[in-house]
Amino acid sequence: MPGISELRARWAGWPPAAGAAVMAxxxxxxxxxxxxxxxxxxxxxxxxxxxxxALAADFVLRLxxxxxxxxxxxxxPGALTAVAATTVLGTGFSALGWQxxxxxxxxxxxxxxxxxxxxxxxxxKPRMPGSAFLCCVATEGxxxxxxxxxxxxxxxxxxxxxxVLFWLGLVLYGIALVRFDLRQxxxxxxxxxxxxxxxxxxxxxxxxxxxAGDGSMYLWNQDDRGVLRNVTAALLVLDLAAYLVxxxxxxxxxxxxxxxxxxxxxFPMGMTAAxxxxxxxxxxxxxxxxxxxVLVWVAVxxxxxxxxxxxxxxxxxxxxx
Length: 321
What we know:
The protein has 321 residues and is mainly α. Helix 3 crosses helix 4 and helix 5 runs antiparallel to helix 6. The radius of gyration is 18 Å and the shape is globular.
């Protein structure tokens, strides 16, 4: 059938960075959950799960049937969206109380993470686009899900592992920042926003670790807790500053038109909202909830605009960027 053949051809044309759409949708669901819009959060989580299944099937089929192409795709920074999307989805399921499913997604992402991270970093070059920061995003995604599950099921070793990943993610952010081409702020097609999104997911990881330590488990002493709280607050401030800079750059140098990399713009916007709300809860700062909720709905509007652009591009027969 022509329709099925066209669908297969379009599916085969998806680049690894298509996982950013799952990341964006999943974190919008988490943000809606944190802001209290539970029904809408679940609907969006279903959409993220369906998209994840489609991309996971594509991942497996390429690995089994076209090993050369799989290796080529796995060496690109966008491949790490597989890890980040899986951890974001797991975080959403954990919020619903589905801890077993969340644990399975954590195990899967933990298996993929070292393989893809090594493949990607071996092919790094000077003057990288914003996708270079996916090394931090994937690592901090593991920290977020690990800390979330540690608090939910009361597993101390998982929280300690998440803490190690939290600090490692910050180191990877610094390495990526050295290689990031700053001109992308004005010229990037959307993935330059990940520079801010990596700070946001780091702040979210810090907030989840703070919350885990404030529970029934004894995880770290008072000094360690103080350092964690201060670093988390600093990360949120840096994230909000980056958000503002990137937003101003969009106004100064508009980049209209749909590009698949725009999903990598929606993700940091949603992640900043989720991080703000999580920091507000974990660090007893209720005054942060109002800006956090505003940022959630700004991210929802960006998601709708990007989804509309994707539909228009598909109808026009456009190929993925």
